[in-house]
């Protein structure tokens, strides 16, 4: 059974809290994607956009325009205009025709196989209202990177039409359990392209992406106790970071990737420590008579948020990485855990138990306003998308874990289901550089 921190002291649900290309990630592929999306809700106002079929895409391993359309639909931000047109990047654009069909923007493109086996993918985006071109990109894509190329085009459309970077080409990591096997898996943000980073007959928990997206830190129980490793996703090399007496848990990267905040019991009760990414330079950060755990750096590195029961029940606090007096951050409800800070540092996502339900909340750190974002009742492990517009979290139904995504305004909800097994501990990777 997957380790569940609800059984741990004080009821803490958990003790613990790429110019890398897909082709460069050395992991075992999964023959078929196991995650499937169910989408509900839409944005406050949707942008009507038409995606014409790219001539030549039928010769590519995957249909690029289908992937782009699925990405944009899943975001809840766009209303796709039905069309069966096939328009290349060199086609003349009849702006009035597309405007008359209700499209504020139009994407066209082409796909051509090159002599070296790559695919030349070209794309252009037009503003039909202003009758002007918004963007043009071209890619020399290896066949196995066609899907990533489509995601990058969807990212460009999202950014040009909203002003916010798209996250379709980013990746997610999570833990699955099927039978006695635990797997740390990495997938595209849409749940496709699943690859296995680690298999184990012992639990794996708390995966955390390095800021450059090249490594994942996690806790493995393969030594019959929680031990922290960092795994290079390209070379598969593993580095033992923390294997001190007692429990070693909840790794969280500093923004520059040089250090991690961790939760250790080496000196008694669980406390927060700082340690270099190579396992050297251990330094104790908190020193209380309570349990301090689930540390998480703020994006600017100026604070470490963590969960502590020093006030009598679990609440979220923050402290300077250099130490000093911690400040309490959460006051609504008597049980608040699993702090996660948005990329702009303005929002705290966390799990709160109220009326017996463990649900996802967001706290605006600028004005103190709270918002409940989930309708499910056994939520855990929130993780912000790198553009800060969505939060992924794990939830449970019928003793089986699944993943869910909600927009930070609560309007758009997505559910990622798996055909078999249990899926938990999600973490959203950074933008690919």
Supply the key terms.
433 residues, mainly beta, five-stranded antiparallel sheet, 3 helices, disordered N terminus
Quick overview:
With 433 residues, the protein is mainly beta.
What are the SSEs and their pairings?
Layout lengths: L27 E2 L5 E6 L6 E5 L12 H12 L2 E3 L14 H6 L4 E9 L5 E9 L4 E10 L4 H17 L8 E8 L2 E8 L6 E6 L3 E6 L5 E6 L6 E6 L5 E5 L5 E6 L5 E6 L6 E6 L6 E2 L7 E6 L6 E5 L6 E5 L7 E2 L7 E6 L5 E8 L2 E8 L5 E3 L7 E5 L5 E8 L2 E8 L5 E6 L3 E7 L5
Parallel strand pairs: 3-4, 3-5
Antiparallel strand pairs: 1-10, 2-30, 5-6, 6-7, 8-9, 8-31, 9-10, 11-12, 12-13, 13-14, 15-16, 16-17, 17-18, 19-20, 20-21, 21-22, 23-24, 24-25, 25-26, 27-28, 28-29, 29-30
Strand order of the largest sheet: 1-10-9-8-31
Portion of residues in beta strands equals: 35-45%
Secondary structure: helix percent: under 10%
| CA-based gyration radius | 22 Å
How many distinct helices?
Answer: 3
Shape: globular
Average pLDDT level: 90
**Distance between the first and last residues' Cα:** 37 Å
Derived structural class:
mainly beta
The major β-sheet equals: 5 strands, antiparallel
Low-confidence parts lasting 5 or more residues at pLDDT below 50?
A: 1-26
Number of strands: 31
Instruction: Please give the oligomerization state of what you see.
Output: single chain
């Amino acid at each position: 059974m997957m380790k569940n921190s609800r059984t741990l002291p004080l009821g803490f649900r958990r003790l613990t809290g790429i110019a890398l290309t897909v082709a460069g990630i050395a992991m075992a592929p999964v023959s078929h994607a196991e995650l499937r999306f169910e989408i509900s809700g839409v944005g406050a106002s949707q942008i009507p956009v038409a995606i014409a079929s790219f001539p030549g895409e039928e010769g590519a391993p995957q249909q690029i325009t289908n992937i782009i359309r699925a990405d944009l639909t899943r975001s809840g931000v766009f209303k796709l205009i039905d069309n069966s047109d096939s328009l290349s990047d060199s086609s003349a654009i009849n702006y009035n025709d597309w405007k008359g069909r209700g499209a504020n923007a139009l994407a066209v493109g082409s796909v051509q196989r090159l002599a070296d086996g790559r695919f030349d993918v070209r794309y252009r985006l037009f503003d039909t209202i202003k009758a002007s071109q918004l963007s043009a990109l071209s890619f020399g894509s290896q066949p196995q990177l066609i899907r990533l190329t489509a995601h990058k085009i969807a990212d460009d459309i999202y950014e040009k039409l909203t002003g916010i970077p798209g996250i379709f080409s980013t990746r997610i990591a999570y833990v699955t359990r099927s039978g006695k096997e635990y797997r740390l898996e990495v997938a595209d943000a849409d749940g496709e392209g699943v690859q296995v980073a680690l298999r184990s007959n012992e639990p794996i928990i708390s995966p955390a992406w390095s800021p450059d997206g090249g490594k994942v830190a996690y806790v493995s129980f393969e030594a019959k106790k929680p031990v922290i490793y960092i795994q290079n996703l390209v070379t598969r090399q593993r580095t033992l970071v923390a294997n001190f007496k007692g429990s070693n848990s909840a790794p969280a990267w500093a923004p520059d990737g040089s250090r991690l905040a961790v939760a250790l019991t080496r000196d008694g009760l669980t406390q927060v420590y700082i340690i270099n990414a190579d396992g050297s330079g251990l330094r104790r950060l908190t020193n209380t008579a309570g349990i301090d755990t689930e540390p998480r750096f703020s994006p600017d590195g100026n604070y470490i948020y963590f969960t502590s029961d020093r006030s009598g029940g679990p609440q979220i606090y923050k402290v300077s990485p250099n130490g000093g007096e911690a400040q309490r951050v959460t006051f609504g409800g008597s049980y608040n855990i699993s702090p996660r800070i948005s990329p702009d540092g303005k929002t705290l996502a966390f799990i709160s138990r109220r009326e017996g339900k463990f649900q996802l909340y967001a706290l605006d750190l600028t004005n103190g306003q709270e918002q409940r974002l989930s309708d499910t009742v056994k939520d855990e492990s929130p993780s912000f998308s790198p553009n800060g517009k969505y939060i992924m979290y794990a939830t449970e139904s019928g003793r089986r874990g699944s993943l869910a995504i909600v927009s930070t305004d609560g309007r758009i909800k997505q559910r990622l289901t798996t055909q078999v097994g249990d899926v938990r501990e999600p973490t959203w990777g950074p933008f690919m550089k």
